[in-house]
Amino acid sequence: MTPRRKDRALDARRRALLLAAAGLVAFPAAAAQRYTRGLLWRVKKAGVAPSHVFGTLHAADARLAELPAPVRKAFDASRALMLEYLADDYGRQRFLEAAIFLDRSTLEETIGTEDFELACESLRPAGLTREFVNKMKPWGVLLNLRSSWQPAAAATPDAQLHALALGRRLPVSQIEEIEEQVFTFDELPMASQVALLRHGLAHRAALAALAEQTLEAYLARDLQAIWRMQEEFMHRHPEIAAHHAVLMKRVVFDRSVVMAYRMQRELRRGRAVVALGALHLYGARGVLALLAQDGYAAERLY
């Protein structure tokens, strides 16, 4: 190869690496089509006992009060459980601390008096006082607002699996640590925090309806429908589309890359159940497609 051709090859490789780092590489359309439906997948690789990946929904709804039979069967045959995140007392305290302004900033100054009053009204049923709400960062209010759309009525699927694992004395690990959970939201640009919170306060009914539709699609095991609902909602509200894109990159795409890498600690040992948010399974940028790049084959079971 001539020096000029070598330079061209190096330039092409550098461009490919830069595109990959920016998350702009287009995956094959066929890969996206493989991961549009299904919550429970058997993943296997040559020389390793199969494991299972289960897509959960972080909602404490009565319709999720019982694990599906195929999931329970996979769990009963497993030797270990890996969850997306385990919220212990320290983690809950740290997350709450991170969601509070530690300087003299206030929510009212950050989002304006009118939206602040809406936030207080929305979070009053949760027992949060006006003084406490005023100390919260916009992302902290937004997460509490979202949880109010799906009031707790049962243990989440993640919590159910955790309780079962403790009962069987299985090894339990987590994919993320608390500081990573905090980083995901606390480093979200303030402009996006404010825009998303204001929009959430102004469209509470529509977002509550979206949460219900998402739960129904989850029960139907339709990952593509969950994703499509998000996209359609953003098309109806282009004023926050850019901020929502920033949020999705941080919450879904960036974390899926980390999850696909770290879950292999258990997959390499075999007979593990890995439970993580269902949206991380979807499409060509989800964990199943990323695992396929590392030689794992995924078979949909449920």
Distance between the termini: 51 Å
What percent of residues are in strands? Answer: 5-15%
Mean pLDDT: 89
Biggest sheet, spatial arrangement of strands: 4-3-5-2-1-6
What is the rounded Rg?
21 Å
Tally of helical runs: 16
Number of strands: 6
Please mark out the parts with pLDDT under 50 across 5 or more consecutive residues, or reply none: 2-32
SSE topology string: HHEEHEHHHHHHEHHHHHHEHE
Instruction: Outline the biggest β-sheet.
Output: 6 strands, mixed
What structural class do the secondary elements suggest? alpha/beta
Shape: globular
Question: What this model shows, in words?
Answer:
The protein is an alpha/beta fold. Helix content is about 60%, strand content about 10%. It has helices at about 5-20, 30-35, 70-75, 90-100, 105-110, 115-125, 130-135, 140-150, 155-170, 180-185, 190-200, 205-220, 225-235, 240-260, 265, 285-295; strands at about 40-45, 50-55, 80-85, 170-175, 270-275, 295-300. Strands 4-3-5-2-1-6 form a six-stranded mixed β-sheet, sandwiched between helices. A hairpin with a 2-residue loop joins strand 1 and strand 2 (about 50-55). Mean pLDDT is about 90; it is low at about 1-30.
Give the arrangement of secondary structure elements.
Elements: H1 3-21, H2 29-34, E1 40-45, E2 48-56, H3 69-76, E3 80-83, H4 89-98, H5 107-111, H6 113-123, H7 130-135, H8 138-149, H9 157-168, E4 172-174, H10 178-186, H11 190-202, H12 204-219, H13 223-236, H14 241-262, H15 264-267, E5 272-277, H16 287-293, E6 297-300
Parallel strand pairs: 2-5, 3-4, 3-5
Antiparallel strand pairs: 1-2, 1-6
Helix pairs in contact: 4-10, 8-11, 11-14, 12-13, 14-16
